[in-house]
Write a structure and sequence with these properties.
Number of strands: 9
Order of helices and strands: HEHEHEHEHEHEEHEHHEHH
Shape: globular
Radius of gyration: 20 Å
Distance between the termini: 13 Å
Number of helices: 11
Strand content: 5-15%
Largest sheet: 5 strands, parallel
């Protein structure tokens, strides 16, 4: 049967999820954190199931994390090499979906450079689909692992003041975090140059700052974002040196936040562009490595729930 606490077939975004559904995924992820830190890190929860990683953009953390999560759950894992697949020969996304669907996988984990592409693919397949990042739209598992990291360190999400700083305009991580954090009762500030602030973003309920010192005042969490040069068409920042001077996180700017404020970054980091190495490697306050670790637990939880729901749906169709 479907998981009654998370009855969805796919995880395409955070938008539309309820606080109870988010908490359910975080609670299950929490159990997998303990599992992954134990001596025996193998399960049969997805024995006999197949997950496919279909990444149209390069990724180290996300793809490897999905692969490791599926393997620890006992699933068979296929990593499709898009650059040498039929996609590279001109096959459309829909044709790719139809081809994969004919092979009856249980879960597709997809990353694509175009917003909405993962939803298009999900509409054409019978299996569960997890959005591993689509364009500048959403990256739901990153937001979940960020939330889990915060909750484990702070004990809650509600009432916290979170600053998300940097290239907000091109960041799917930022959008998913806005949606999740606001849903869970946190306050969210964004801090960025005017050229990297999305139009009308304040309508989402976030507070907008263009000055790091003012924006970081008394925050509980400082979440830095990578400058996504590959998505920039034109000049959004004058130079790396100027960007770091005004928007890079260093000790002086961090002093505006609460003394116990956590430092986060979804990776990969551009040291000396958006964050100083001394801050990134702060053993007491930086949770960047913890984010990577908890990403595996979150993706295990998501794969387990969606595979279970997918099986229930398909059994219902046969019946």
């Amino acid at each position: 049967m479907r998981d009654p606490a998370f009855p969805h077939r796919h995880l395409l975004g955070i938008e539309g999820l309820t606080p109870a559904e988010i908490n359910h995924l975080l609670d299950l992820s929490d159990r997998y954190v303990a599992f992954n830190r134990g001596q025996e890190r193998s399960s049969e929860a997805l024995k006999g199931r197949t997950t496919v990683n279909l990444f149209f953009e390069n990724s180290t953390r996300t793809r490897t994390s999905f692969e490791l999560a599926a393997l620890r759950l006992g699933a068979n894992v296929i990593n499709m090499q898009v650059e040498s697949s039929s996609v590279a020969k001109g096959e459309t996304l829909i044709d790719t979906a139809v081809t994969l669907n004919a092979m009856h996988p249980d879960v597709l984990c997809v990353r694509h450079p175009d917003s909405g592409a993962v939803k298009l693919l999900a509409d054409k397949v019978n299996c569960a689909v997890v959005n591993g990042g689509d364009g500048s739209h959403e990256h739901p598992t990153q937001a979940l692992l960020d939330a889990l990291t915060i909750r484990r360190r702070k004990g809650r999400l509600s009432g916290l003041l979170v600053a998300i700083c940097g290239d907000v305009l091109h960041s799917r991580v930022a959008r998913s975090n806005f949606l999740l954090l606001l849903t869970m009762g946190a306050r969210v500030r964004i801090i960025a140059p005017r050229t990297l602030i999305p139009a009308q973003v304040d309508r989402m309920g976030v507070e907008v700052f263009t000055d790091m010192n003012a924006g970081l005042k008394d925050v509980d969490i400082v979440m830095m974002l990578r400058v996504q040069n590959e998505r920039m068409k034109g000049s959004f920042i004058p130079s790396v040196r100027e960007y770091f001077r005004f928007f890079g996180l260093d000790r002086a700017k961090l002093s505006q936040a609460k003394p116990d404020a956590l430092i986060m970054h979804p990776g990969p980091m551009n040291r000396g562009t958006e964050i100083d190495s001394d801050v990134a490697d702060d053993f007491e306050r930086s949770v960047i490595r913890e984010q990577v670790e908890l990403g595996v637990a979150v993706r295990m939880a998501v794969l387990e729930v969606l595979a279970q729901n997918n099986r229930a749906i398909n059994i219902g169709k046969v019946a």
